[in-house]
Specification:
Number of helices: 4
Radius of gyration: 13 Å
Distance between the termini: 10 Å
Order of helices and strands: HHHH
Strand content: under 5%
Shape: globular
Structural class: mainly alpha
Oligomer: single chain
Helix content: 55-70%
């Protein structure tokens, strides 16, 4: 996967967060979750990818924007939202990304 492809995935997740905000948080995500955790983490990841400062060890690549919804907020995995699915795909891609 190319850097541009990874950035596209990040931008898609950011766009889904913006859609959630515009819809008044009508899905399972709350304002706090999107604005204080998910979006800042996605923006930080975007900067990390652009700078090329990705950890060499894939075991150190964790997307807080996915781990927290999965482990702490108990977002629905059986009937996942588009945002949840996009974050899960991004987490897997980021972890497996070849630098």
């Amino acid at each position: 996967m190319k850097q541009a492809d990874l950035l596209d995935m990040i931008d898609r997740c950011i766009a889904l967060c913006e859609q959630e905000k515009a819809a008044g948080y009508s899905s399972e995500a709350t304002q706090y979750q999107i604005e204080d955790v998910v979006l800042p983490d996605l923006q930080k990841l975007r900067e990390t990818v652009l700078s090329g400062d990705i950890p060499a060890d894939p075991g150190l690549r964790h997307l807080l924007a996915f781990c927290v919804p999965f482990k702490c907020w108990d977002w629905d995995m059986i009937y996942p939202t588009e945002l949840y699915t996009a974050l899960a795909n991004l987490q897997n891609t980021y972890r497996d990304y070849n630098i």
